[in-house]
Amino acid sequence: MTDILGRLNAVSREIGDMPVSAGAGRSMLLRRIFDAPVDEVWRACTDPDRIGRWLAPVAGDLRPGGTFQIEGDAGGEILRCEEPRVLKVTWVLGEGMPSEVEVRLSEGADGATAFELENASPAETVDQIVRKYGPVGPVGIGGGWDLTLLALDRYLRGEEFDAATWTGAPQVREFIIGSIRAWAAVSQDVWGSTDEEIDAVVAFTIQQFVPGAADGGDGG
C-alpha cells in the first residue's frame, strides 16, 4: 500500500444529521467509490466469512431482527437488510454510547460502487459532549470508520494483509494520523472549535489511535 494521500482523499467526510430511533441524530458520514461491483461490495459487508477476512470474525443471528457480535468490537441488532442496497444496524461497543450505522450502496460509473456509511448517535448527547470536551468523540469515531473502509478497500483490491495486526504498519499509522486531522477540520467547521481546541483534540486522538506518535509527528 503506497498511495496514502490518494486513499485519504478517496473519502468524502461530513458531519450529518441522520435520525436515530430515539429522534434527532448527529452522524459521521463517509462517502467513497470502490472499484468493484455492487454485489461484490454487498457480500463483503454481509457474508460472515468475507467479513472475517478484512474486519474480524462475526457471529449471531444474521437476519433482519437478529443480532450480531464482531469479535473484539461492536455488536447490535440488524434493523434493515435490503440486498444489495441498504444495511442498517445498531452499533454498541462495550458501555459506550449506542449508535446506529447505515451502509448504502449504488452503482457508480464503469461498474464501480458508490458507497456511503453513516454512523449516527443522539444529537443532543453528541452536542453536549462536544461542548464539554471538544469534538474528541466525533474525530475518533470518524477515524475508526476511515480505518475500517481502508481495510475493506484493501480486501476488495485483493491485497494481502493480516486483518488482526495490519494497523501497526508505518503507512497505516500515517493514514490514521491523516484521517484524524481531516475529521478534526470537518468538526471545527461544524462546532466552531478554536484552533487551540482542535490542536488538543488532534494530539489526544492520535495518542489514542497511534500510541507513541509524539504530537502526531508520524504524519508530517
From TrEMBL:
The family database entries (Pfam families) matched by this protein are listed as: AHSA1 (PF08327)
InterPro entries per UniProt: ASHA1/2-like_C, START-like_dom_sf
Residue span(s) of domain Activator of Hsp90 ATPase homologue 1/2-like C-terminal: 35-156
Report the family membership: Belongs to the AHA1 family.
The entry's protein name is Uncharacterized protein YndB with AHSA1/START domain
Its lineage opens with:
Bacteria, Bacillati, Actinomycetota, Actinomycetes, Streptosporangiales
